């Protein structure tokens, strides 16, 4: 399966996540609510995915969640075989545990460029006090406890790597 364009889009998305985090960190204190900053800062409006987060998520919490959700991505995106479920699952568990409406909104956002993202994963349950994501500015809810997503173990056997990011073998004649 040729998924090099999906890998590229996911790398670009990872870059957007890091850029958003950098902007948030430079414009606020760690205890500031992300939803509050989204309303005040025009520079954050282009990061549509931030609207899907839990309404009471603070910048410091988001930093931890993004680190947990996306640290496996660079290595996973360079593997010969792409583990789609592991990529989406790490984000689901770290950023959207207890926030099913936010997860749905986030998946819809990512699926604009990567059609398969988040498909086939089990649904997540809402916190007892959770409100829909569209009410984020009004009714804030606590961030759920983080769940660590585990990537499947890899074999020590060499893997033949073809296609992006590995160049095709060239003829020596």
From the alpha-carbon coordinates, what is the Rg to the nearest angstrom? 18 Å
The mean pLDDT is 79
Overall tally of domains: 1
Question: Based on CA inertia axes, which overall geometry fits?
Answer: globular
Distance between the termini: 29 Å
Q: What about the largest sheet?
A: none
The low-confidence runs, each spanning 5 or more residues with pLDDT under 50, are 128-159
Number of helices: 6
Summing up helix and strand content along with how strands pair, one would put the structural category as mainly alpha
Element-by-element helix/strand order: HHHHHH
- The percent range for helix content is 40-55%
Number of strands: 0
Strand content: under 5%
Provide a concise account of the structure shown.
This protein has 173 residues and is mainly alpha-helical. It is 42% helix and 0% strand.
Q: What would the keywords be for this entry?
A:
single chain
List the helices and strands and how they pair.
Layout lengths: L3 H24 L6 H7 L18 H12 L2 H6 L5 H12 L4 H11 L63
Helix pairs in contact: 1-3, 3-5
